[in-house]
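Course assignment 3, question 2. Fill in each field.
Student: A.L.
Task: Predict the tertiary structure for the chain below.
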Amino acid sequence: MKLSGTMPDLTPAQITGFVAWAVSQAVAYGWLDTRYSQVVLSAASTVVVFGWTWADAHIRHGRAQALAANPQLSNGGK
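Answer field:
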């Protein structure tokens, strides 16, 4: 399988993470009654989304390294 083209600046995982964060913030501050519940949901969703975005960046970095040309092989192994 050959991958070609450039990677997008925004991936589906990043967009989904942002939408999930926005929805959780709306739920936290729109429907929850107690301040404690709002803070807990807000903080938890922020941590989860940052973790999700970091994981996506880590996977993209690994793919970029795997697809990069190996300098030792580019000159015929000499």
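Instructor remarks: The helical segments are 12-30, 35-67, 71-74. The CA atoms of residues 21 and 64 lie 27 Å apart.
Grade: pending
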